[in-house]
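Data availability (excerpt). The following record was deposited with the supplementary files.
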Amino acid sequence: MPDHSNKPRIVITGVGLTSPNGNDLETYRKNLLAGVSGVSPYEIRYFGETVAGQCDFDNQRHQSRKTLRRGTRAGSVAIYCANEAVLSAGIDLDAVGKHNVGVYVGTTEHGNVETEQQIYEISKYDYDTSYWSHHHNPRTVANNPAGEVTLNMGITGPHYAIGGACAGGNLGIIQGAQMLQLGEVDVAIAGGVSESIHTFGIFASFKAEGALGENVDPAKVSRPFDRDRNGIVVSEGGCLYVLERYDDAVKRGANIICELAGWHVNSDAADFVLPLPERQNQCMRGALDRAGMAPDDIHIVSTHATSTPQGDIQESGAVREVFGDSASTNINNTKSYIGHTMGAAGSLELAGNLPSLLDGVVHPTINVDNLDPECEVRGLVINEPRQTGGVETILNLSFGMLGINSALVVKRPETN
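Predicted structure:
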């Protein structure tokens, strides 16, 4: 393992988010502690009735109607989150120099929504391509969500999207941290976004796989670790952070929310969909090694578990292998509240746990009426919040299709 001790320390100083159960960190956290689900009935063209996690943020808070018409849902989510993160950080980007700001946005898929919509529209005109939108190409290029942020905020530094499947949110944060450590930028706006609920193909594919969750009560469809879980809830959302080098943040008197202590990314090289516990295990241990920590040093493990029968078992086994003997580690899950926000999952799930560094309370996994014995892990927090003696560290797990794994360790900021 390379020596990272001489690298600049990286901290988070701002958070901007929209989720199915809250459009700011305070509301989001309040609903996580109160057990409030954001999953609701939903209907999509050609598919019919289902459930989804839908966001209701004010899309004109930072955008004009004209740019909303021209842009994308993912771009709008990213613009909202980026502006809110900068406001949260209290940072003057003009003083930093907008050429010194980078935007790094993790995504799952991008462009499916726009392509499906355009095909539907021209079907009304016998597929006459003269009715095809000239905005289609900039809407569907992979860098769109990050690029829309730069257009909206006048940022002239680097921007790109990180195609990391459902690990994208973590990967956006990691990319921002790496660019800061390399000295390529002085401020990074980083995290993940998703517009997944607006595409028929996502629902149809999960349904075809037998992986789309169902329940008579929409709020109970997403039930990781429960014996009766039967699949994913598709959701939209986003969470972007302001990342800075520690010394820069201290110099400007910023409120430091947490420090990035370590991370690791690897690949299963095994299957298109089914995760490999051995590689998940290696990913967790790689992040701990980089952070210079042992399993007992981690106070919260935020799991990726998506409420699929096999995936939850695989991940539980990997977590049990690493943390099964740790008496100080609490295990929780956020998808039980908001469903699977795909490219936003890692960044949104981290955000829900960050307040624990201040109040020591761990939000639970909800909807676990009958714990699956194969998902039992020591320290699992179920249905009710847990008051601890204090939370100093969080390990945020985020895994994706084609076998991409990510693990990110954050810690309470030190004062020296």
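Summary of structural features: The radius of gyration is 20 Å.
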